[in-house]
Design a protein that fits this description.
single chain, mainly alpha, 71% helix, 0% strand, elongated
Length: 202
């Protein structure tokens, strides 16, 4: 194993049995949340997935889910203007992306998933949406970078992850996942859960 792969493996080795179970179930559970939002508010499943992703930056998952439901509810009840007034715990630009996603399907029979990814635009947002939707991908966020780098850093201090670096990080996660007989997205989620516990990140 290369150094960065060993860093990932080290966090996996520190994961408890319950954290391994939680990590393996993380994205399937998130998918069920998106299905529930879609069925409750009469929107497309992929819209619910993308709204969850759009509102995720610097947002705790517990709050992310609340923000997504409130934004969708406001949009369904009062349109884009009502959704824009809804307060969320992420950046305004990301709230606008969520609304653009909800608006994108207006008057159309269907919309291509790539169109949704184009609205999300950020690499991490697209990866997160793909993982929740059930597509094969790996979410590389600041925590995943810290695990790969073998360090502890605040998210604001994580350097910009270039396209080339992102692909290398993903490949290292894939190789460690393969060695441990699991999917890359499962490994990312397990190590994220363990890393948060180790470093007392709420």
């Amino acid at each position: 194993m290369k150094k960065n792969q060993r860093n990932i493996q080290a966090i996996l080795d520190l994961a408890s049995s319950s954290e391994i179970i939680e990590g393996k179930l993380w994205y399937p559970t998130a998918k069920q949340i998106a299905i529930h939002l879609a069925e409750t508010y009469g929107i497309a499943f992929y819209e619910a997935v993308a709204v969850l992703s759009a509102l995720s930056p610097r947002n705790k998952w517990s709050r992310n889910k609340i923000d997504a439901e409130r934004t969708i509810n406001a949009y369904v009840s009062g349109g884009a203007s009502a959704a824009l007034e809804n307060k969320v715990c992420t950046f305004t630009a990301n709230k606008k992306k969520a609304i653009m996603i909800l608006e994108a399907n207006k008057g159309k029979e269907s919309i291509d998933w790539q169109d949704i990814l184009d609205i999300l635009s950020g690499a991490k947002l697209c990866e997160f949406a793909n993982c929740i939707k059930g597509n094969s991908d790996i979410t590389i966020d600041g925590h995943a970078w810290c695990i790969w780098e073998g360090c502890r850093s605040s998210l604001k201090d994580v350097p910009r992850i270039t396209k080339k670096s992102r692909e290398q990080i993903k490949e290292d996660y894939r190789q460690v996942a393969l060695a441990n007989e699991m999917e890359g997205f499962e490994l990312q989620a397990i190590t994220w859960v363990a890393y948060r516990r180790i470093h007392k990140i709420k």
